[in-house]
């Protein structure tokens, strides 16, 4: 990374161990040894993908990738150096087991994801997507604020079912005008059917 695609995306997606990797011996077909090199990371990641599919054959390619990213070593703050971080096979398998009979992932906790693309707004990124995870049906609001704490845009005020939902902000304020470049914050407020409340703000 960083990606040169338009709009840009975080790259790489995930990473795997490339040093002191336990692997089959290249000289003895009955033995194992340790080796190193970046070429070992790809088969390790592919192996984890296979284990995920074995745990849940209904999972789609996108869901397999989501499981690996959501449980990576730096899933909460991905960047263009290590992406979503070092993969965690056990955690990814447990994550994919939550895919229900309709093929949808059932989150275990409320979560507000980093918007993408970011930075935003820019000439190359006139819009951005905000994603939320709901472990139960909830009433949610998503509002965007400027650096002065003033509400810029009300993105959502509605009931949502359990699952992962994405919302597109086109860079306009409540008056329908394109906002200027700057720092913006977005806040999720959610109240589940159980009465659990959740609030999180990101920028």
Description:
The longest helix is centred in the N-terminal third of the chain and has 15 residues. A hairpin with a 7-residue loop joins β1 and β2. This protein has three helices and nine strands, in the order ββαααβββββββ. The protein is α+β, with helices and mostly antiparallel strands. It has a four-stranded antiparallel beta sheet, with no helix packed on it.
Question: Which of globular, elongated, flat, extended, rod-shaped describes the shape?
Answer: globular
* Total DSSP helices: 3
Helicity level: 10-25%
Record the strand order, biggest sheet.
6-5-8-9
Distance between the termini: 22 Å
Low-confidence stretches: none
Summing up helix and strand content along with how strands pair, one would put the structural category as: alpha+beta
- Kindly estimate the percentage of residues that lie in beta strands according to DSSP: 25-35%
Radius of gyration: 20 Å
Largest sheet: 4 strands, antiparallel
């Amino acid at each position: 990374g960083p990606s040169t695609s338009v709009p840009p995306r975080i790259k790489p997606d995930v990473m795997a161990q490339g040093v002191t990797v336990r692997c089959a011996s290249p000289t003895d077909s009955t033995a194992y040894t340790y080796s190193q090199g970046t070429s070992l990371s790809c088969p390790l990641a592919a192996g984890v993908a296979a284990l995920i599919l074995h745990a849940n054959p209904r999972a789609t390619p996108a869901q397999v990738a989501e499981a690996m990213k959501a449980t990576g070593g730096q899933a909460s703050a991905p960047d263009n150096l290590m992406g979503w971080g070092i993969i965690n096979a056990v955690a990814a398998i447990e994550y994919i087991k939550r895919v229900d009979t309709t093929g949808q992932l059932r989150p275990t906790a409320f979560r507000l994801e980093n918007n993408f693309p970011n930075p935003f707004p820019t000439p190359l990124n006139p819009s951005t997507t905000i994603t939320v995870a709901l472990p139960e049906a909830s009433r949610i609001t998503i509002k965007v604020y400027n650096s002065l704490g003033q509400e810029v845009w009300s993105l959502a005020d509605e009931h949502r079912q359990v699952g992962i939902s994405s919302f597109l902000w086109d860079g306009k304020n409540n008056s329908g005008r394109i906002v200027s470049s700057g720092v913006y914050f977005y806040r999720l407020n959610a109240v589940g059917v159980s009465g659990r409340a959740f609030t999180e703000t990101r920028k």
